[in-house]
Write a structure and sequence with these properties.
- The structure is a single chain.
- By secondary structure, the chain is of the alpha/beta class.
- Helices cover about 40% and strands about 15% of the residues.
- It contains eleven helices and twelve strands.
- α9 links the parallel β9 and β10.
- The termini are far apart.
Length: about 300
């Protein structure tokens, strides 16, 4: 791993996993998502990872919804915009890629394989449902996998890569590192790589700290110093895994996409609250927080320009 001179904080603002019935603080509308992103950036996040939702919380893929989110963020900040290509498992591939092809961001997420991505357990904890769509949506993940086959990965790397987009390679298991190595060998995934280790999702690698260190060892074996590493764990282990990643020389990711909590039994009231907490931990280690431009330099991003948007 290329040890980070400064720590990049990424904030995953809303995602497509958690649902409104779990927390009143989850950003839903475009205005709420952009406001939450601006607050996270002000708190120290260099990168914002963006999904979109409809006002009732249903995952959205429509480019116009992303435009509503992005306009105030890009008008007021120079933060790195990371657009999802994962969307939700209920979406088609064309739907998942629609926003990224429209926006042509400097950074986009890339799930490195098909997998059981199960969050049906949410249904066991919700006692009062706000919307009719929520319960069948989460239960469906028990029987329907998230699909990202090699041909889909290659298509995304080729098409978005041609527009200058680089990728946050989300690795939910050790095998995903070997899948990434395959695309590096083909010349489609180009260093410096940003590997995002994801822990604690049912169907992926567990939130065990030995697993985090094992992932780094295997990544070191496969990629040497040609990658930057970041890690997060879903749910209650979010802060602990961010701390461990920073201690190892990596970066951190927080946000209400990954965890609705700020402490044991205490819901986070904003994304910015999580950013401030991990920032304090990282700075207590004696490490500095990266600015957006410093993050761009470390990740070899092209920078954002208005010409990158489709049909501009």
């Amino acid at each position: 791993m290329r040890a980070a001179e400064k720590v990049i904080i990424t904030t995953a603002i809303t995602g497509s996993v958690n649902i409104p019935s779990q927390s009143p603080y989850l950003p839903l509308s475009a205005a709420e998502v952009s406001k939450a992103a601006l607050e996270a950036i002000a708190a120290g996040s260099a990168v914002v990872h963006l999904h979109a939702r409809h006002p009732d919380g249903r995952p959205a893929f429509e480019p116009e919804v992303f435009d509503e989110i992005l306009e105030p963020i890009t008008a007021e900040t120079d933060a790195v915009i990371n657009i999802t290509t994962g969307g939700a498992s209920s979406m088609t591939m064309d739907q998942r890629l629609a926003a990224a092809h429209h926006v042509r961001p400097e950074l986009a997420s890339m799930n490195m394989g098909s997998m059981n991505f199960v969050y049906s357990g949410i249904a066991d904890k919700v006692t009062e449902w706000q919307h009719d769509w929520e319960k069948p949506y989460v239960l469906n993940t028990y029987s329907h996998p998230f699909v990202n086959t090699f041909d889909k990965i290659e298509h995304t790397l080729r098409t978005l890569g041609a527009a200058g987009t680089r990728f946050e390679y989300e690795c939910y298991d050790i095998g995903h590192l070997y899948s990434l190595a395959h695309f590096v060998e083909k010349g489609l995934a180009k260093p410096p790589l940003l590997i995002q280790g994801v822990f604690g999702v049912l169907g992926g690698i567990g939130a065990d700290h030995a697993n985090l260190e094992h992932m780094v060892r295997i990544a070191d074996k496969l990629f040497g110093d040609d990658y930057q590493f970041s890690a997060f764990a879903a749910g209650r282990d979010q802060l602990a895994f961010g701390t461990h990643s920073a201690w190892l020389g990596g970066h951190v990711r927080v946000g209400l996409e990954d965890s609705l909590w700020i402490g044991k039994g205490q819901l986070a009231e904003s994304n910015a609250q999580q950013v401030r907490k991990i920032r304090a931990v990282v700075e207590d280690m004696g490490k500095q927080i990266a600015t957006p431009d410093e993050a761009r330099a470390m990740l070899a991003l092209r920078g954002a320009t208005v010409e990158n948007k489709e049909n501009s």
